[in-house]
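During the first year of the project, the team set up a workflow for recording each protein of interest as an amino acid sequence followed immediately by a discrete structure-token representation. This format lets reviewers and collaborators read both layers of information side by side without switching files. As required by the reporting guidelines, we include two representative entries from the current panel. The first entry is reproduced here exactly as it appears in our internal archive.
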Amino acid sequence: MITIKRKVLFGDCDPEGIVYTPRFSNFALEATHEAMSILFDGPAIATMKKRGFLTPVRAFNLEFLSPVTWDQELQLKVSVLKVGNQSFTFLVQAYLNPDLLAFTATITYVTLSVETKQKITLPEWLRAALTEFNARQTSNP
């Protein structure tokens, strides 16, 4: 599991200091992109584009479990949930402290050709990186 820390900023919140609902999707997406950058040992989107594919979101699910307010720090734990033929899914668990889960998100990315914008099979190096990451997280729960 890769943990990304994210401080809640003033601009993320409404006048009462509670995070705007749409910002949670940004937090989750940013965490998965950061996790991919760690997995790929370089900037995720640039690396994928350079290798000929894009990864738009195909499915997104978010469950709110606890309010999040200005100046709190989220620990976003990113893990691989599934690796398919043309897609892969991350699970993001956002904690305010080790015992307080604020929200969860599942995000499924599909692989498209940069040139044709059509679905393609997961590139082998991507499948290997995700599968290896998945194996590490299941052997070290």
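The second entry, processed by the same pipeline in the following quarter, appears below.
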Amino acid sequence: MLFTADALAHVRRYRQWLPWAKEAGGQLFGTISAEQILVTTATGPYPRDERSRYRYRSDPAAAQHAIRAQAESGLLYLGEWHTHAEDRPDASGLDGDAMRLLLAKSQLNSNTLLMLIIGRKTTVDSLGLWTVAAKRVDQWRLEYIAT
């Protein structure tokens, strides 16, 4: 699984490194082949999102608009991203529940979604990545590879 520099730059722009910063989030898009999953684009946050220091909920209409627009450009919806006000982000039970609900209510080409959580720092250990399926949530170990 690879993330482009542009996708990472977008999500890191919203990290909660200031004490009053609110959670932000959006959607992840890219391509899937037999060899790799490539996350090329991240969208959001949107003006009508629900945001507080420790909570985020994407505006469903804006998210659906982004999904349609990215599909028209040939990209697949791969999952969601959001920020946490911690150095090493960890998925809460609410995060997993929200992703499983999204998975159950969506018409997808996959039975798994990505969940990327961005912490306060710019290091790779301040990124958390999980795959969420109906009955399991698995965390991935990330490493930075310069290209």
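For the second entry, the following points were noted during internal review. The CA atoms of residues 16 and 54 lie 10 Å apart. The chain has a mean pLDDT of 92. Both points are flagged for discussion at the upcoming steering committee meeting.
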